[in-house]
């Protein structure tokens, strides 16, 4: 098989299409005598309100380059040790090489420039949405909070989805975060949003990225464009039913060739969730027994987050970057207290279960990047290496007390479960980028990724004779995965057209070995994944686009292990070593008017979708949570969105989506095919206000409402939330204080049902929805550019 793959990789390098690219602004910085100025700060600002968009520094030769700039109107200037160049108005329509920016001493005599806070706004590009969140009212919160208000992103029960897909990958500065999903939630919940410049929702990921994710969310961290050192300390306090607290510190340093960012936070969360679960078990004699469970789930967790980003400019053409991200949970305790009442059961009237669990976890990742600019202008060679180590241990003690039909004590059951998991993830990738003429580029690359996982379990004290139960007593499961990939992708634009397309090939080898049954599962899989986007912009008012992709989701190590573990005496969590990879197609097309009003239609189809499905066993009165394949998922719909600055202090984003979806899966107990169909819609609105003359007070008002929808083999009722966040800066923006309420009217409780064939159950989840949030952040060090010192008055600049 491999002999077939390598020639195909070569062909992929030689046959591709064209796609779009953003523009590059370049030039030099000089003094009045025409001598170049090294290490000068260069700023690019919004032409309308002088909002700082991005910046860079000139190199040792006085040359600067700003990449990934969307065509449009901007202001640019350079500054050095209090002196600066005159403000210049520019229009970007492709790569732009400017005349030198001349710094002069007389600039110090000009009036002060007021660089206002950047309002959250949405930029629509050919393959992504860019949500600018810098300096919003959520800046004193965490990144997870910002994702909750990011356009197109939906978070329900801490489950992340975009455009109905939960196959979402998370990047930080373009680097994929290769850790389990729950740890991504923990990582982002402990990362300060003040360090985030923007969030890119990549709806059609380029071929250079893994074919596993339908959507990528790239969290773009701020670059330190100020020479020297600066830092910050911050605190976030959240009060629901129980308190939650995060403290942290950020440190940045920039020298002539180096740039360093170090971030640490400690988080102590106490949460409570209440569940009401009702299951109607039907029996062969026609009788029905109803089990009603009231559960209180208490969670107490301490977590440390540490991240480091280091960049070193070896020379003008070579750059080395090192990144490390570590998440450590030394102590997490969970208590499940469940009281279950039984109606129609001949053995018991009720039983009470207390589950005490403890967990420790360590997750540490390392990334090394090398970039080499080649002699041909625009040509580049880059390499990336990655390694992640993950270790988790979990133990639980479960006690159950049974009461007979006379409500007398009739028996007790106690058992323990100890699990441990270790895994190593590693990857190596090389990429080559070369221009093809002035308006197109070719990018190709190779990648290898591997996973080595070991899981073990020890359960003692359970009743082996209980019908329907076959738990793993003592067992180990090893899983190895190797993926070989190659891709080719071109970019190009001409006249009013932009086209982007690529092809990725992946060959996967997986092997799982279970010691209990001496069972080994091996699978080999080779597939091609095309993707493409086309954009037509006849003028500034109208924009048309169409895009398509094919993706895959492979079962993860934690879902294919064959263990059957207890969640309570009558519920189990089960892996499935027979899971198949899920493949999906997505096609969409849209129209945007005046960069503000967008309509988009879409169709998606998924085969063998991966999900945890809930099935009731009516013979043994057992609930089983099983990792499963959904035979087919399909949906079609239409989105309407508005993104507009109504005034210079008010920005609004509105999205309304209507869609019809169908799920087909096999009912476990009857082996019958079940089809669920649901017409759904949701609306979300994000409104940002910049108040006071100096824009030092910002307010964010956000609303979300979701109608009835399908998830797995359950149907969820409608729910919604209204959130308000305020942020005020003091002392020349060194100190910021934020305060807000989440789910003001407490409408976020979620109710779901399973009602088909022999399945009949409901579940109500009541989380800490209404939350009071208080944030505090103080910056110190060289946190100011010498650019806000003396330029022109805002009202004068608006005439440019």
TrEMBL record:
Protein name: TonB-dependent receptor
Main location: membrane
InterPro entries: Beta-barrel_TonB_sf (IPR036942), CarboxyPept-like_regulatory (IPR008969), OMP_b-brl_3 (IPR041700)
Cellular component aspect of the GO annotation: cell outer membrane
Pfam families: CarbopepD_reg_2 (PF13715), OMP_b-brl_3 (PF14905)
Species this protein is from: Zobellia amurskyensis
Lineage: Bacteria, Pseudomonadati, Bacteroidota, Flavobacteriia, Flavobacteriales
Chain segments annotated as coiled-coil in the UniProt record: none
Source organism, top-level taxon: Bacteria
């Amino acid at each position: 098989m491999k002999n077939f793959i390598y020639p195909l990789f070569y062909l992929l390098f030689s046959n591709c299409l064209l796609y779009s690219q953003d523009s590059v602004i370049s030039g030099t910085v000089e003094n009045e005598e025409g001598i170049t100025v090294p290490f000068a700060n260069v700023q690019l600002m919004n032409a309308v309100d002088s909002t700082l968009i991005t910046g860079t520094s000139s190199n040792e030769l006085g040359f600067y380059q700003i990449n990934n700039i969307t065509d449009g109107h901007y202001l640019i200037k350079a500054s050095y040790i209090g002196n600066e160049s005159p403000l210049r108005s520019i229009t970007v329509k492709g790569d732009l090489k400017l005349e030198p920016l001349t710094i002069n001493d007389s600039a110090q005599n000009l009036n002060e420039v007021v660089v206002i806070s950047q309002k959250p706004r949405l930029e629509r590009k050919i393959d992504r949405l860019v949500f600018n969140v810098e300096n919003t009212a959520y800046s004193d919160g965490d990144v997870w909070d910002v994702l909750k208000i990011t356009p197109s992103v939906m978070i329900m029960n801490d489950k992340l989805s975009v455009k109905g897909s939960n196959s979402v990958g998370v990047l930080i500065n373009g680097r994929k975060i290769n850790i389990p999903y729950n740890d991504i939630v923990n990582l982002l919940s402990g990362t300060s949003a003040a360090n985030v410049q923007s969030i890119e929702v990549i709806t059609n990921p380029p071929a250079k990225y893994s074919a596993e994710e339908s959507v990528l969310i790239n969290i773009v961290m701020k670059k330190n464009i100020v020479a020297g050192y600066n830092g910050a300390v911050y605190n976030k306090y959240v009060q629901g039913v129980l308190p939650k607290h995060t403290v942290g510190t950020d440190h940045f340093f920039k020298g002539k060739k180096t740039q360093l960012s170090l971030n640490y936070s400690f988080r102590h969360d106490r949460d409570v969730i209440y569940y009401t679960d009702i299951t109607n078990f039907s029996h062969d004699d026609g009788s029905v027994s109803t089990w009603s469970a009231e559960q209180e789930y208490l969670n107490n967790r301490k977590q440390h987050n540490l991240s480091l980003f280091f960049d070193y400019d070896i020379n003008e053409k070579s750059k080395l970057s090192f990144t490390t991200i570590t998440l450590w949970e030394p102590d997490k305790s969970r208590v499940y207290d469940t009281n279950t009442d039984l109606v129609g059961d001949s053995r018991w009237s009720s039983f009470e279960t207390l589950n005490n669990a403890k967990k420790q976890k360590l997750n540490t990742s390392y990334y090394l990047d090398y970039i080499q600019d080649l002699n041909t202008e625009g040509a580049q060679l880059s390499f990336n290496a990655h390694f992640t180590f993950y270790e988790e241990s979990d133990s639980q003690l479960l006690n159950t007390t049974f009461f007979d039909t006379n409500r007398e004590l009739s028996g007790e059951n106690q058992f323990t479960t100890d699990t441990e998991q270790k895994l190593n993830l590693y990857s190596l990738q090389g990429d080559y980028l070369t221009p093809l003429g002035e308006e197109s580029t070719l990018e190709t690359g190779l990648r290898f990724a591997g996973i080595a996982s070991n899981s073990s379990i020890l359960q003692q004290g359970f009743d082996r004779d209980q019908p329907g139960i076959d738990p793993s007593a003592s067992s180990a499961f090893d899983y190895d995965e190797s993926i070989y990939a190659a891709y080719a992708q071109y970019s190009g634009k001409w006249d009013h057209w932009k086209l982007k397309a690529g092809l990725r090939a992946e060959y996967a080898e997986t092997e799982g070995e279970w010691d209990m049954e001496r069972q080994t599962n091996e699978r080999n899989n080779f597939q091609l994944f095309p993707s493409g986007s086309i954009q037509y912009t006849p003028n500034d008012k109208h924009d048309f686009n169409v895009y398509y992709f094919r993706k895959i989701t492979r079962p993860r190590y934690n879902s294919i292990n064959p263990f059957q573990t207890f969640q309570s005496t009558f519920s189990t969590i089960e892996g499935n070593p027979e899971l198949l990879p899920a493949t999906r197609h997505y096609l969409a097309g849209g129209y945007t008017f005046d960069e503000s009003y967008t309509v988009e239609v879409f169709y998606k189809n998924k085969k063998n979708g991966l999900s945890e499905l809930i099935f009731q066993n009516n013979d043994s009165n057992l609930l089983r949570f099983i990792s499963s394949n959904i035979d087919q998922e399909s949906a079609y719909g239409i989105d309407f969105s508005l993104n507009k600055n109504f005034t210079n202090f008010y920005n609004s984003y509105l999205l309304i989506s209507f869609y019809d979806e169908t799920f087909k899966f096999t009912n476990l107990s009857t082996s019958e095919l079940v089809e669920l169909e649901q017409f759904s819609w949701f609306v979300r609105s994000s409104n940002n206000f910049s108040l006071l003359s100096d824009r030092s007070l910002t307010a964010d008002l956000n609303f979300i409402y979701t109608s009835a929808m399908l998830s797995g083999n359950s149907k969820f009722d409608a729910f919604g939330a209204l959130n308000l966040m305020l942020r005020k800066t003091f002392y020349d923006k060194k100190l910021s204080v934020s305060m807000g309420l989440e789910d003001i009217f407490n409408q976020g409780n979620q109710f779901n049902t399973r009602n088909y064939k022999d399945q009949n159950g409901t579940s109500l989840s009541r989380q800490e929805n209404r939350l009071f949030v208080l944030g505090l952040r103080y910056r110190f060090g060289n946190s100011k550019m010498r650019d806000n010192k003396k330029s022109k008055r805002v009202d004068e600049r608006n005439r440019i």
